[in-house]
Amino acid sequence: MFRLHRTTGRLAAAGLHSLVLLLATACGAGTTDSAGSTGGGSPTVRIALGVDASYAPLYLAAERGMFKKAGLDVQLMKVEGGPAAAQAVTAGSAQISANADSTALPQMVSNPRLRALGVFQSSGRYLKVVLREGITAPRQIKTMGSIQGLGLYATHEYLRHHSVDPDSVKIQQSAPQEIPTMLQRGDIDGYILFDPWVSKGVEAGGHIAGSIGDFGVTYRQWLLADDKWLKDNQVLAGKVFKVVAEADRLVAKDPHAAALAAHEQAQLPVAGTEKALGEISFESRALTTADVASSRRIVDFLLEQHLIRSAPELDTVLLRGWYDRYAG
Q1: I need a labelling partner for 242 at 20 to 30 A (CA). Which of 144, 188, 202, 298 fits?
Q2: Could you tell me which of 206, 226, 191 has the C-alpha nearest to residue 104?
Q3: pLDDT of residue 58
Q4: Buried/exposed 184-222: b ≥16 CB within 10 Å, e otherwise
Q5: How do the residues of the chain divide into helix, strand and coil, expressed in percent and rounded to 5?
Q6: Same domain membership, residue 264 and residue 194
Q7: What is the mean pLDDT of residues 313-323?
Q8: Does residue 167 share a domain with residue 301?
Q9: Domain that holds residue 269
Q10: Per-residue DSSP letter, 120
Q11: CA-to-CA distance for 305 and 151, rounded, in angstroms?
């Protein structure tokens, strides 16, 4: 069966160390990239992605050989998640990545050649608020753990929604797998994450206090590509996205089968994954004006927090109409 290709080393969320690792991987990947495969057949396309239930369509497509049936040579390349997936595209070790909008947008500032091709899933329920024992109201929160990108944006929106000044709360950024342990130790009062880290937080004594949709946050997961590669591979990228769209429909129709594929591909627990899939809308579509408006709000937040120095050109990096032309 198809298996995920692992990058070397442990990728930090956005640090220089992760970029060095990705560049090192790219140096050894030139003979099998989309310019041509070693076997002389279909060009190889590597898709960089994280490890959680939201990537179920890609796991299912790989497990069932859907890419191969479409005449494609696609490899899934597992990274830590977050910015690391887009950084793999920037480094050239992957041709396509799967990233949430709030994670992709900062990467589009550092690499203005990144392009969002379309949406392949979205949710306002998948990410949840977990609070430690004894914390029963947001006003009691003094410290929160957070991942970069979507996690940080959702954390600020959660606090503001409950009339808590984010500047009054210490927000410690860390890797997802470390945050439930921080909660158990009492280092933080809460966090906002997805499974399996939500379940692990509950196992550590925490409790679920809501979902991101409760305070008006919905993420959209995009497929990204570098414009330089994309210009010569529009049709190829469209074929890849068509398979993802087909896999989306299969996940929605049979979440149990998708959970089994996620277990085989990424060792995710079947029961927890199947439950999580019911909280995600798996539908591939073109980017819309509403997506641009949502992205603009995220960019405004990033500028306000001095997390980016300038705004990406949204009308350039968000390819409205691309999906309908090449993947629809």
Answers
A1: 298
A2: 226
A3: 98
A4: beebbbbbbbbbbbbbbbbebebeebbbbeebebbbbbb
A5: 50, 20, 35
A6: no
A7: 97
A8: no
A9: 5-123+219-326
A10: E
A11: 14
How is residue 7 written in tokens?
A: 């990058």
Verify that 225 and 86 share a domain, yes or no.
Answer: yes
pLDDT at residue 304 greater than cutoff 80: yes
pLDDT tens-digit profile of 230-276? 999 999 999 999 999 999 999 999 999 999 999 999 999 999 999 99
**Total residue length of the chain:** 328
Same domain, yes or no: 138 and 274: no
Identify the CATH number of the domain in which residue 298 sits: 3.40.190.10
Number of domains in the chain: 2
- Count of helix runs (H) and strand runs (E) in the chain: 15, 11
Helices (H), the chain: 16-27, 56-63, 66-69, 83-91, 101-110, 150-161, 179-185, 197-203, 227-232, 234-253, 255-266, 270-277, 289-304, 314-317, 322-326
Token pair listed for 62? 């790989």
The pLDDT value recorded for residue 41 is: 64
Q: Cα separations (Å) of 71 from 166, 182, 205?
A: 50, 46, 48
Extract the tokens encoding 51.
């490890």
Residue with the two structure tokens 């597992």: 78
**283 plus 145 within the same structural domain:** no
Q: 230 with 280, same domain?
A: yes
Contact call for residues 266 and 60 (beta carbons, < 8 A)? no
The 10s digit of each residue's pLDDT in 27-81 is: 333 333 544 444 456 789 999 999 999 999 999 999 999 999 999 999 999 997 7
Angle ∠(11,263,269) on CA atoms, nearest 5:
90
